[in-house]
Design goal:
The chain has 393 residues and is an alpha+beta fold. It has a single domain, classed as Chorismate synthase AroC (Chorismate synthase, AroC fold, 4-Layer Sandwich). The chain is 30% helix and 20% strand. The protein contains ten helices and 18 strands. It has a five-stranded antiparallel β-sheet with strand order 1-2-3-7-4, covered by helices on one side. Strands 9-8-10-16-11 form a five-stranded antiparallel β-sheet. A two-stranded antiparallel ribbon has the order 5-6. Helix 1 (36-46) packs antiparallel against helix 9 and helix 7 (238-247) packs antiparallel against helix 9 (342-372). The termini are far apart. This is Chorismate synthase. Belongs to the chorismate synthase family. One of its GO terms (biological process) is aromatic amino acid family biosynthetic process. Residues 34-61 are annotated as: Disordered. Its cofactor is FMNH2.
Length: 393
């Protein structure tokens, strides 16, 4: 299906070479300040043609709000968003009439639907993510105003080159995650906040581009000021929802939260996050190997996770492969494609994170509202031990 979310729900539409792409967003709270200018910055960060490290396809990706707002304010009704496709060249994909591209979705889409888009990847194209980014910008607008939530993703690895290992030096990693901003992420075309590492990563991307090849990488994301208590205890644990969201992004191949796979090499005596009293009197943790989530529910610490992106499937090199009818052949794809998708994936990761947090906030708000509707005299009879406020003898 093409919808994501429960209460805050986005449905995307459009293919890579149709008239345009966009989304319908339902569940947006009424009274939220919102104009195209609040959405456009993230779409501009995602758009193609923004640097020498990305596809040269020249799309401005200017968004129009079609419904759901009046005088720059949301009405609580479905919001329709549209972005036209302008610089599309369907003729660049004539080879795919004969060959399913290796590691692309041409063959699997054909098997699923019995037909496929004759130009580009159709719904498997990254152009589909425009609707996600637009909807994510709306979610971020609410989360920032209502809760001060900050979501920052950045490039932490390209091919063999990477920043500091987030688990090898946990203290240094937490300081880094606490301080990184979108401004220093966007200070270079790789979108890596470490200038020295960014220079090394850029050389890897340029080498792949010049060889008509592609390379993958890793995006790290941190979410700050997250309300406590988000996420459900069983199937919809917050990390499960984040994994679902991230693995739905094109070209993703792996996801890990907190210490991730590296945490398997750390004994529990070091991996556990001890509770401490914060300056404001609330509980926090002295370390954060959990990545801000325990038992599937947010604990108030920063959430951090990583997403792995594979090399782009469409490359300009000749590849020995087979035609749709099984005949051996050689495919040399045309078209305009990213040598590395990671720099442009940054706002997509942020958008999907925002959609997950927004939906979880609205679910938790509904629960709180239901509790508060119970008369106070009834609620006061609840034993203290059921609220976790029993004093030790």
């Amino acid at each position: 299906m093409s919808s994501f979310g429960n209460i805050f729900r986005v449905t995307t539409f459009g293919e890579s070479h149709c008239k345009g792409v966009g989304c319908i967003v339902e569940g947006v709270p009424p009274g939220l300040p919102l104009t195209e200018d609040d959405i456009q910055p993230q779409l501009t960060r995602r758009r193609p043609g923004q640097s020498a490290l990305t596809t040269p396809r020249d799309e401005k990706d200017r968004v129009s709000i079609l419904s759901g707002t009046e005088f720059g304010t949301t009405l609580g009704t479905p919001i329709g968003l549209f972005v036209p496709n302008q610089d599309h060249r369907p003729g660049d994909y004539s080879e795919t009439d004969l060959y399913p591209r290796p590691s692309h979705a041409d063959w699997t889409y054909l098997q699923k639907y019995g037909v496929k888009a004759s130009s580009g990847g159709g719904r498997s194209s990254a152009r589909e993510t425009i609707g996600r980014v637009a909807a994510g910008a709306i979610a971020e607008q609410y989360l920032k105003i209502a809760h001060g939530v900050e979501i920052v993703a950045f490039t932490s690895a390209i091919g063999p080159e990477s920043m500091v290992d987030l688990t090898a030096d946990h203290h240094a990693a937490m300081l880094q995650l606490a301080e990184v901003t979108r401004a220093n992420v966007d200070s270079n075309e790789v979108r890596c906040p470490d200038a020295e590492a960014a220079a090394r990563m850029r050389k890897v991307i340029e080498s792949s581009r010049d060889a008509h090849d592609s390379i993958g990488g890793v995006v790290t994301c941190v979410i700050r000021n997250v309300p406590v208590g988000l996420g459900e205890p069983c199937f919809d644990k917050l990390e499960a929802s984040l994994a679902h969201a991230m693995m739905s992004i094109p070209a993703t191949k792996a996801f890990e939260v907190g210490s991730g796979f590296a945490g398997t090499r750390i004994p529990g005596s070091k991996h556990n996050d001890p509770w401490v009293k914060r300056p404001d009197g609330t509980l926090g943790t002295s370390t954060n190997y959990s990545g801000g989530i325990q038992g599937g529910i947010t604990n108030g610490e920063n959430i951090y996770f990583r997403v792995a992106f594979k090399p782009a499937a469409t490359i300009g090199q000749e590849q020995n492969t087979a035609t749709y009818d099984g005949q051996d052949g050689v495919l040399k794809a045309r078209g305009r494609h990213d040598p590395c998708v990671v720099p442009r994936a940054i706002p997509i990761v942020e958008a999907m994170a925002a959609l997950v947090i927004m939906d979880a906030v609205m679910q938790q708000n509904a629960r709180k509202s239901a509790i508060e509707s119970i008369p106070a005299d009834v609620r006061d009879k609840i034993e203290a031990r059921l609220t976790g406020k029993v004093r030790l003898p």
